[in-house]
Write a structure and sequence with these properties.
The complex is a heterodimer. By secondary structure, chain A is an alpha+beta fold. Chain A contains 15 helices and 14 strands. In chain A, the strands form three sheets. Chain A has a six-stranded mixed sheet, with helices on both faces. In chain A, a hairpin with a 5-residue loop joins strand 1 and strand 2. In chain A, helix 9 crosses helix 15. By secondary structure, chain B is of the alpha+beta class. Chain B folds into two domains: 232 residues, Cytochrome Bc1 Complex, Chain A, domain 1; 176 residues, Cytochrome Bc1 Complex, Chain A, domain 1. Chain B is built from 15 helices and eleven strands. A six-stranded mixed sheet of chain B has the order 1-2-6-3-5-4, with helices on both faces. In chain B, strands 7-11-8-10-9 form a five-stranded mixed sheet, sandwiched between helices. In chain B, a hairpin with a 4-residue loop joins strand 9 and strand 10. The chains are: A alpha+beta, B alpha+beta. At the A-B interface, helix 2, strand 6, helix 4, helix 10 and helix 12 of A face helix 2, helix 4, helix 10 and helix 12 of B.
Chain lengths: 429, 431
């Protein structure tokens, strides 16, 4: 069997990326063999962007405002936004993350119409004191729903134990109290600050005609005036390198305890550095913790984990961390096993065979993901908004193919240390 | 449009679909049989037991290594239920890798899938005493963990109550109290019953230069691995559709939970299952009522009254239950109930605006058309139709929905009877 490092890959579609006069970056991935088209319009604005200087004036916003704004973009005086898409067979939704907000539709026809609707509803805002108040009850129920979920709770508790002041320690939706404090004026200020086209990206993949859609986008945007891009400086507090505490324990109404271990990065990363580090960590974590490792099998044999045990990595412009964990009957024992395993592997590094196996697996997983428009678009948007301006899937594959054992082991040494580790357990109350 | 080619091999059927757009090949082996109280827990454990090792790959790590060697082929074994049937499934998603011999990769993945289901012996791999003891503990934990997902738990309870006394009322994972007494011998006995009694369907979807040849190879290998058994075909399928009996009345159950939010689930019997003539009308009616973000429930419970973030209605095609779900504050329960009853009445009276009707039909068309891009959805639809004794394809369903008129939806709504209101009451704030 040929080596994954040397497989030559031809993407099953072309990508076309360009920047409009107003600063909006557009990427089209036409795929005529597919019925579905998935389009995403996203802004580089998330829950961590809570403090900023606009035209020399400092502002600090209540927690959860980016997510609140996402909800309110669906307000339209003429026709409900959901109904407007539905009338022509599209479904629309949105989400807010720590560092971006994304609006997307999925449709199988009339793509030009839906692209216009997507651009139009996100590029206009219709707030009244009344409709802002109305949203607070809906968001409160959303917050309650999330708070009742043990895995989500375990995750947020870990971040609270990891970060002293960086706003990634705060829930994306904020709290019921912070949401109640949000005003119409604050929402409008954030909208005007962060929804300028030069801060946004539009990405579309699926069964559409690229020339037609490119024309529709150009025409739609040329008709609108946005003015100069605002001068914005985002303020993030200076985050100390060590975590807040190394041990954290949360009592919760839960049938089975959860353990999450997190290693904190000292810095975030941008663009191609971010992609490289992201891929290096994907391979390293797979080699260390995937079911093909002898360690994983030993945890199963000891009854310490189930097959939901997993590891993952997050890297953004201003923060980053590794998470390892899952459900376990004995969080303390599992934490001890993982800690001693990592310190043992650190002494000798991962071996070349494990690295090749993980590289091959991740290569196959990327190839399979190309069948999923939604996955393609979300990935593109995330990398782009994190600074990979000329992002291309070929680049990701190239990074994966050229990753060396030395680099993976260097990451092991510099990142998976004792002094940046947080052990967090959610246990039955 | 896409359609499966079926190879009838007696004991099993192989369904193949050549699909040029996909770079992933999907292979699935589905075994289904009637759930029964005396072996529901054993049956539920089998897929996990299989993953713990076969005769040739004696532990999970060996299985994972074999899958990763096939470019990270995603291998899975799962238990699901549809009405009163258990479905045991082994599946693999195999990437097309440039420069690799496609047939070789797929054949090796196929071997892996078939061996996971068929290559077992008592005392070896997943059926060794040690592996069974470990799996029993994991299974206890799986059953207990259902309660950690409040919304899923509440829905399961609601449907169990609505279907009480029938196979459809049995829980997917079985019962905690059964687990202690289980042994490797007992699990292996139930495993042999499964191979002898289940209806077996295999699926292959994706790009292939020789799909017919591939289907034949699947059929041959299955014939080698399966014992001869009675042929079970959809014609003798049992129906799990709950009758909308006027004499039954609604059962209301409230349980308390240490949670912030209250889960509200109200199930109606419609008497209409997947294979019924009226099924497209039921799906359209549900779309207008609570199936989409433009629906009556979403607009009135969430957008106008701010009572919920999540509020939906959905149809279970096997039992014909239409269930309304909402995550609410405990003291809003009656208000939510009043709104949904009023909205149901308005559908019954045929108060469906032309806009609402158009939005619903277009949304359903979009939903079905998107399924055509998803191999696992194509497989699931085909299999569910088989189980319901129906031949209705996705394109046929789209056409049938087009023909539904608002008065058909109103007539279906008129036949709904509430059978269970289940409320998992949160205390508002955590103590």
């Amino acid at each position: 069997m040929s080596n994954a490092r040397h497989a030559s890959l031809q993407l099953p579609f072309e990508t076309r990326t360009w920047k409009l006069a107003n600063g909006l970056v557009v990427t089209l991935m036409p795929r005529p063999a597919l019925h579905q088209t998935y389009a995403m319009f996203a802004t580089r604005y998330g829950s961590v962007d809570r403090a900023f200087v606009l035209d020399g004036q400092p502002h600090e916003m209540p927690d959860g405002i980016a997510h609140f704004l996402e909800h309110k973009m669906f307000e339209d005086p003429e026709m409900d936004v959901f109904a407007r898409f539905a009338a022509h067979g599209a479904s629309v939704d949105a989400y807010t993350t720590f560092d971006h907000t994304a609006y997307y539709f999925s449709a199988t026809g009339e793509i030009a119409r839906h692209v216009r609707t997507l651009l139009d509803f996100v590029q206009s805002i219709h707030l009244t004191d009344e409709n802002v108040e109305k949203e607070k009850g809906i968001i409160a129920q959303e917050i309650h729903m999330v708070n009742d979920h043990p895995d989500r709770r375990a995750y947020m508790e870990l971040l609270k134990a990891m970060y002293h002041v960086h706003p990634v320690r705060i829930d994306i939706a904020g709290t019921v109290e912070s949401v109640n404090a949000i005003t119409k004026e604050q929402l409008i200020l954030c909208y005007e600050t962060f929804y300028h086209p030069s801060n946004m990206v539009l990405v579309i993949a699926g069964g559409f005609d690229a020339d037609e859609i490119a024309h529709v986008i150009e025409e739609n945007q040329a008709k609108k005036a946005f003015g100069e891009a605002p001068s914005v400086e985002r303020l993030y507090p200076d985050e100390p390198t060590p975590p807040v505490r190394s041990r954290h324990r949360v009592p919760f109404s839960v049938q089975e305890p959860r353990l999450l271990m997190g290693w904190k990065e000292a810095n975030g990363a941008f663009g191609s550095n971010l992609i490289e580090q992201d891929m290096a960590m994907s391979v390293l974590l797979d080699a260390l913790f995937s079911p093909t490792s002898a360690f994983y099998q030993s945890l199963l044999d000891e009854g310490l984990v189930d097959k939901g045990f997993s590891a993952g990595y997050q890297l953004s412009n201003t923060f980053g961390y590794t998470l390892v964990g899952g459900r376990t009957p004995d969080p303390d024992r599992l934490a001890e096993r993982i800690q001693s395993y990592v310190s043992r592997v650190r002494e000798r590094g991962i071996d070349g065979e494990s690295l090749e196996r993980s590289r091959k697996k991740i290569m196959g997983r990327i190839l399979m993901s190309l069948d999923q428009n939604a996955f393609l678009v979300r990935n593109w948007v995330t990398y782009f908004l994190r600074g990979a301006e000329a992002f291309d899937f070929d680049d990701v594959i190239a990074v994966l193919q050229t990753l060396t054992l030395e680099r993976a082991n260097a990451r092991l040494q510099e990142h998976l240390r004792e002094d940046n580790l947080v052990v967090s357990a959610v246990v039955s109350s | 449009m896409e359609s499966f080619q079926t190879l009838d091999a007696g004991r099993c059927q192989v369904h193949a679909l050549e699909h040029p757009a996909f770079r992933t090949k999907e292979i699935a082996l589905k075994l289904h049989l009637r759930m029964s109280r005396d072996r529901v827990t054993e049956m539920a454990m089998l897929p996990a037991v299989w993953m713990n090792g076969t005769r040739s790959l004696p532990n999970y790590r060996q299985i994972a290594l074999a899958a990763d060697d096939l470019y990270g082929t995603h291998l899975r074994a799962s238990i699901s239920k549809r009405g009163g049937y258990h479905i045991l499934e082994v599946g693999a998603s195999v990437p097309d890798v440039p420069g690799e011999d496609e047939a070789r990769l797929v054949d090796r993945a196929l071997d892996l899938v078939l061996s996971l289901a068929l290559d077992h012996a008592l005392g070896i791999g997943g059926f060794s005493d040690a592996a069974v003891e470990r799996e029993k503990e994991l299974h206890r934990r799986r059953i207990r963990a259902i309660r950690d997902d409040k919304a899923a738990y509440a829905l399961q309870r609601c449907h169990q109550i609505a279907c009480r006394g029938t196979p459809a009322g049995l829980p997917r994972l079985g019962f905690l109290e059964d687990v202690d007494a289980l042994t490797a011998t007992r699990l292996h006995e139930v495993y042999r019953e499964l191979l002898a009694q289940a209806e077996v369907h295999a699926y292959v979807v994706g790009q292939s230069s020789d799909m017919a040849g591939l289907a034949e190879r699947v059929a041959e290998r299955l014939a080698d691995g399966l014992p001869d058994g009675r042929e079970v075909r959809a014609a003798d399928a049992d129906s799990d559709v709950v009758a909308p009996d006027d004499l039954r009345g609604i059962e209301e159950v409230t349980e308390a939970e240490n949670a912030e939010q209250t889960q509200f689930d109200l199930a109606y019997a419609t008497g209409i299952g997947f294979g019924d003539e009226q099924y497209p009308a039921l799906v359209a009616m549900n779309g207008v009522f609570g199936g989409f973000a433009h629906s009556k429930l979403f607009m009135n419970v969430r957008e106008r009254r701010s009572l919920a973030y999540s509020v939906w209605s959905f149809v279970d095609a096997a039992t014909g239950l239409l269930t309304v779900y909402a995550g609410i504050a405990a003291d809003k329960r009656e208000e939510v109930r009043d709104i949904l009853e009023a909205e149901l009445e308005s559908v019954r009276r045929g108060e469906i605006a032309s806009g609402e009707w158009q939005e619903t039909r277009a949304s359903l068309r979009n939903q079905y058309k998107q399924m055509l891009d998803q191999p696992t959805m194509l497989i699931a639809w085909h299999h569910h139709a088989l189980m319901a004794g129906s031949r209705r394809t996705i394109p046929e369903m789209m056409e049938a929905v087009e023909r539904v008129r608002p008065e058909d939806a109103a007539r279906v709504a008129a036949g709904l009877r509430p059978v269970c209101l289940y409320v998992l009451e949160g205390r508002g704030n955590r103590t």
